[in-house]
Amino acid sequence: NSIAALVATGGNRVADAMICRLSDFMRATMMGAAESDVSLANEIATTESYLAIERLRFGDRLNFAFSVAPDAWDATTPPLILQPLAENAVKHGLAAPHTAIHVQTDVKRTGDMLAITVTDRRVAMGADTPRIAPDSTGVGLANVRDRVALFGAGRGHVETEVLADGFCVRLIIPYRR
Q1: Which of 84, 85, 44 is nearest to 168 (CA)?
Q2: Is residue 18's pLDDT more than 90?
Q3: Do strands 62-68 and 99-110 pair parallel, antiparallel, or not at all (unpaired)?
């Protein structure tokens, strides 16, 4: 949809860059689809590719960063577990015009558990920016909850928190190498 919108409005150079990023994203998702677990590094790279596509669409309205504790890099995760969280952050965070968001992903290891936190912080870029609640089916977050429960064999769970300026999702999963 983002690429089609750019082509329709004459943004061909940006659309071309999006297509290149989309190929990176598709390659990563196809490789991960055959695996039951993926490395944290691959999961972050896939999510970063997705966010880079959206950054081309939204420009300076979207910023993102990843922070991974050194002892967590060798962990594995379910494939495509972070992408729906990033997609929700973009969809809900940028629903209103004149808003910007920063999506921060933090990964820490605590003993035999891994905590992955995705937080979006929204910033109004103009006076009287209305809060718009985009249509939501709740499928993305429910899917993530189910997949975390399966991956964690009953030990994994998902925590959510509505923030004054955004939303936070924390995945707690067993640490596996």
Answers
A1: 85
A2: no
A3: parallel
